[in-house]
Amino acid sequence: MIGAADIPADLDDILALASRLADAARVETLPRFRTGIAHDAKSDESPVTAADRAAERVMRDLIEAARPGDGIFGEEFGVSRPDAETVWILDPIDGTKAFITGKPVFGTLIGVVHKGRAIAGVMDGPATGDRWIGGAHRGTIFNGKSTHVRTGSAMSDAWLTATSPEMFAGGNKAKFDALMDAVGYTTFGSECQGYGQLACGWMDMVCEDTLAPYDYAALVPIIEGAGGIITDWTGAPLGFAPGADEKSHSVIAAADTSLHAAAVAILSA
Predict the structure, then answer these.
(1) Domain ends where: 109, 127, 146?
(2) How far is residue 224's CA from residue 195's CA, in Å, rounded to a whole number?
(3) Residue 244 pLDDT > 70, yes or no?
(4) ∠ at Cα 19 (59, 50), nearest 5°?
(5) Scanning 1, 7, 130, 231, which has the fewest C-beta atoms within 10 Å of its C-beta?
(6) Helix 11-29 crosses helix 50-66 at what angle (to 10 degrees)?
(7) 11 and 135 share one domain
(8) How many domains are there within the chain?
């Protein structure tokens, strides 16, 4: 957990700007939703649309205007000033496949990392009108009200979610299968909003693999601010630096220490 001394004095300003970015991205994504928008395939064969690019562009422009010394790491347009003390990590549309196919669970992720620690995060759901806001040493806000994870679920009764079973690669698929066997229920197709479900107390765990920092940076303050725990599969803190292995990160988020420890024991075996 980030220490109080590591939180920048202008965190309120950062959170306000993050919300402005989410508003601006929504203007670009929502009018294009369910319009039969065309897409291109990126080098990793994942799809990208004009909405992804337009939303990231407008967010980058707002950051450059308001905080020109900050770094930016976006899914679509890469990295600017990665060595800056404060770096904004952007995923304009998390769940592009859902966006293309008319499913309302896609989201915009805006994370802010200060001295290597995630201090602020916004997850916006343009199609559902939902927004989660998290800040270091602050409670998570969902649609203007405080929200919290539920605790005390037994592993055998727990609800687990992930975006897709196809995201688990190599030996990690067998580990995820073992986790599914240990919990009560598993759902798929939640995209980033599965973490919002966890933060609101509707889900007990989220487990995912082959992620990049822009897939999870915004989610760390949201989960922690709601009382949950989010790490990699070994229980170590998540990293945020861009690199060649961007799509190789694993994430386990849980409502309490008991569920998290049980999940890590399975996933790190």
Answers:
(1) 146
(2) 11
(3) no
(4) 35
(5) 1
(6) 150
(7) yes
(8) 2
Helix (H) / strand (E) containing 66: helix 50-66
Number of residues written out for the chain:
269
| Per-residue pLDDT, 176 | 98
Mean pLDDT (whole number) for 69-93: 96
- Tokens (6 digits) for 249: 């990160």
Domain that holds residue 113: 4-146
Q: What are phi and psi of 251, to 5 degrees?
A: -140, 135
Please tell me the distance from the alpha carbon of residue 240 to that of residue 94, in angstroms, as a whole number: 17
Same domain, 21 and 140: yes
**Beta strand pairing status for 107-114 and 86-94?**
antiparallel
Q: What is the pLDDT of residues 2-55, one digit of tens each?
A: 766 678 899 999 999 999 999 999 999 999 999 998 998 777 768 889 999 999
Asked if residue 233 lies in contact with residue 264, where contact means CB atoms within 8 angstroms, the answer is: yes
Contact assessment for residue 89 and residue 196, using Cβ atoms and an 8 Å cutoff: no
Name the residue with tokens 């539920």.
150
What CATH number did the domain enclosing 88 receive?
3.30.540.10
Give the pLDDT band (50/70/90) at residue 179.
Answer: very high
168 and 120 share a domain?
Answer: no
Last residue of a domain, one of 124, 146, 168: 146
Coil, strand or helix: which one is 216? helix
Q: Are 82 and 179 in contact (CB under 8 A)?
A: no
Residue 247 has pLDDT above 90, yes or no: no
